[in-house]
Amino acid sequence: MENIETFYEVMRRQGITRRSFMKYCSLTAAALGLGPSFVPKIAHAMETKPRTPVIWVHGLECTCCSESFIRSAHPLAKDVVLSMISLDYDDTLMAAAGHQAEAALEETIEKYKGNYILAVEGNPPLNEDGMYCIVGGKPFVDQLHHAAKHAKAVISWGACASYGCVQAAKPNPTRATPVHKVITDKPIIKVPGCPPIAEVMTGVITYMLTFDKMPELDRQGRPQMFYSQRIHDKCYRRPHFDAGQFVEEWDDENAKKGYCLYKMGCKGPTTYNACSTVRWNEGVSFPIQSGHGCIGCSEDGFWDQGSFYDRVTDLTQFGVEANADKVGLGAAGVVGAGVAAHAAISALKSAQKKTQSKKEEA
Amino acid sequence: MTDTTPSPLSGAHADEHDIATASRQTSVYVYEAPVRIWHWINAAAIIVLCITGYFIGSPPPSMQIAEANYQFVFGYIRFAHFAAGLIMTVGFLGRAYWAIFGNHHARQMFYLPIFKVEWWKEVFFEVRWYLFLEKQPKKYVGHNPLAQLAMFCFITLGVAFMIVTGLALYSEGLGQGSWADLMFGWVIPAVGGNSMMLHTIHHLGMWWIIIFMIIHIYVAIREDIMSRQSIVSTMISGYRTFKDDDPD
């Protein structure tokens, strides 16, 4: 590990002054929600710790995670890639291609056994021995196993790696499988979203470098600092929700006034993410702010939860498209009709019995 | 347990036959006060929960009473739902406590003697009675076995299911680390990790309880008229009275 430069050395080599470096440490501390006392700690870590080697592999995915990542503003993606980590393999971002790229992967694994972080974007399809996703002439699932074997930790970028996303939606013909169901012997951090927020991605990496440990995770393995609250909990339209003021149709007056999108199927109340606080594109906006409900893209199996535009969504389990209300009302209707028929027969029967006993008495 | 109704009857409207009958007939104290109080609190809570719960899934039309800050229509609907849900939860726990410390009728709702052949015979006898295949119903002091089966499935299991799923949903609002999250947060991963699914099955649970209500009210009234014992008034006074003194 001696031959790896520290963050500080790399930054100084790039012409960054000590003053700018300290500013950067302050900003990073602020981005992670830490107090000023953590600034020297971050500075110390960056001065003394070698950069962490990262291998970034791509399975079945659309690269939206990478697209998001390179737009990070705090810290800038360039700072992360060039100064903070040593991104030794990323077939989408790296200059090398083909055999050279694959050689870089092997070299990194060999050189930093047990010390590198494996970042996975996308997931492996398991049907047909993994033949639905081939990287460097081999099934991606093999590359994943190979690269994970000596990794210190695994980051599952996005809904694909964390939960499966669209390629794993029913009926999942390729049997696309989230990373934690394939790699079971390594600590895994899920950073779900389609894509995850840029600052959340870089924030997770910065945290891991600064403190040299995994961030605190919730029950589902997501970093608590970004996924412990729902979109709904911090939504700026929440007062309209509590007031009972909803957008009723996409083009109505309430939509113009920016009322709550709950009735339009907003999944904010069931979605854990930081969109309503961190927002997107340097904090410019997020889906609800631009007038569309949340679709719950950072939730497990969000493609299989019925329409994006219903609150009481369809239950595909019943074979036909019907929501809980239709199923329930149907069942209650059948029972109600049965009760009415039963009551009628009961009345007839007892009337008949009375007439008979009268006859018998007579 | 059995005591005799005081007699003789007097008054202008009681003839010889009435007096003779009344002096023979008996009543049994079945439902103690905690059971009766729980029943009616639970019934009221369920009505509030069904109405507000339906509105939470499909909110009423938007209202413009005041500025959003001062208008809390949907907030009150949700508040009523949560308050009724917690009252139902406390009531259910109290009812479970009474099943242990109350009389043996209070235990009936919480277990099914499924290994007793005799019990199953009685269940099928009751089924035949409801299918009009038996002419004469039997007398029961507590629940008849079919009613016991229904109570267990709809109320004991049904309400427990609604409490567990409901508090898991409630924990999302209270936040991670809250008591509801620590106790019931595990339910969300257990139903697949997406709480949208939890909303859906909680909603289906409401219809399960509504179906119970339809059957329960119909059967209680029908039995009150057609069976050989009191039903409706028993849940008010606690006494089960019998309409005849045939030993069977």
Textual characterization of the structure:
- The complex is a heterodimer of chains A (362) and B (248).
- With 362 residues, chain A is α/β, with parallel strands linked by helices.
- Chain A contains 14 helices and seven strands.
- Chain A has two domains: 51-226, Rossmann fold; 232-313, Cytochrome-c3 Hydrogenase, Chain A, domain 2.
- Helix content of chain A is 40%, strand content 9%.
- Chain A has a five-stranded parallel sheet with strand order 2-1-3-6-7, with helices on both faces. In chain A, strands 4-5 form a two-stranded antiparallel sheet.
- In chain A, a hairpin with a 2-residue loop joins strand 4 (134-135) and strand 5.
- The longest helix of chain A is centred in the C-terminal third of the chain and has 38 residues, at 324-361.
- With 248 residues, chain B is mainly α.
- Chain B has a single domain, classed as Transmembrane di-heme cytochromes, Chain C (Fumarate Reductase Cytochrome B subunit, Up-down Bundle), CATH 1.20.950.
- Helix content of chain B is 62%, strand content 4%.
- Chain B has nine helices and three strands.
- In chain B, strands 1-2-3 form a three-stranded antiparallel sheet.
- The two termini of chain B are 19 Å apart.
- At the A-B interface, helix 11 and helix 14 of A face helix 3 and helix 8 of B.
- Chain A: It is an enzyme of class 1 (oxidoreductase).
- Chain A: It catalyses: H2 + A = AH2.
- Chain A: Its EC number is 1.12.99.6.
- Chain A: Its cofactor is [4Fe-4S] cluster; [3Fe-4S] cluster.
